[in-house]
Specification:
By secondary structure, the protein is α+β, with helices and mostly antiparallel strands. The protein has two domains: 106 residues, OB fold (Dihydrolipoamide Acetyltransferase, E2P) (Beta Barrel), CATH 2.40.50; 101 residues, OB fold (Dihydrolipoamide Acetyltransferase, E2P).
Length: 252
């Protein structure tokens, strides 16, 4: 009788744990078979947003194949990434975990429950309603990097490089920024620095959490690799790594 009582108590204790474990597994598993008629490009997503009067949410297993062009390992962004395909670039916002994906990974993104949001001119795929984005975004190839397009500030202003990886050439930090760090002593979570070419300027936006936030901006001229973004205040550049800022030439 005592043995039966002990077994009964053990079953009572184990059952809630088992039910809780099952609840945590209710998120949708990765899709094994892809319906090719539901594969979209980034250009398709831009068109869907343009044709929608309101915020758009995907309600089926539409797929996007793209390459990660910026991750959050360097701290300049957090729980987000930028991806690009042959038709354009877009921001993937509010991943479930930091450092989920790396630059160069070719991924398949299940868009189900993702919202298409225009954030001050920058188009985002927002996944905040997805329990585990690591199940929605599946790595297809580990090393498939995209080569940045060589551009000028004038090229960026055409609007053809939204959320894309570029190498901006013939630039230097403005005189007013010399001897400053990428992120200064401000109360905000990000700071702006101006870079210029012979005729135009553009903002370099840096998070206070970036690994290079307290590095002094270079004093010379040259080029930088960055992601192009747009805010209500204008065009901006997001540096991925300090190693991609090459300004060792004399100032012009």
């Amino acid at each position: 009788m005592k043995r039966i009582y002990i077994l009964f108590i053990a079953a009572v204790l184990i059952t809630p744990f088992f039910m809780t474990s099952c609840d945590e597994e209710l998120d949708t598993p990765p899709i094994a078979t892809v319906d090719q008629s539901k594969v979209l490009t980034i250009a398709d997503i831009y068109k869907i947003k343009a044709d929608s009067s309101f915020e758009y949410m995907f309600k089926d297993d539409y797929m996007l194949y793209a390459t990660v062009t910026m991750d959050d390992y360097e701290g300049n962004i957090y729980k987000e990434a930028y991806v690009e395909d042959a038709s354009g670039g877009i921001n993937i916002y509010r991943l479930s975990y930091a450092e989920s994906f790396k630059v160069g990974q070719y991924v398949r993104i299940n868009l189900n429950r993702a919202r298409v949001v225009d954030y001050s001119g920058k188009l985002e795929l927002v996944f905040d309603s997805v329990l585990n984005t690591n199940k929605s975004i599946v790595v297809q190839h580990a090393n498939n990097p995209i080569i940045p397009e060589q551009v000028t500030i004038a090229d960026i202003e055409t609007g053809n490089y939204k959320c894309k990886l570029v190498e901006v050439q013939g630039i230097q930090f403005a005189n007013s920024e010399l001897n400053e760090t990428y992120f200064g002593n401000v109360t905000f979570t990000a700071d702006n620095r101006l870079v210029e070419d012979s005729t135009k300027t553009i903002v370099v936006r840096t998070s206070k959490y970036a690994d290079f936030a307290k590095d002094t901006v270079p004093q010379g001229s040259g080029k930088m690799v960055a992601i192009v973004t747009l805010h209500s205040s204008g065009w901006q550049l997001l540096v991925r790594s300090i190693d991609e800022v090459d300004m060792n030439e004399p100032r012009f």
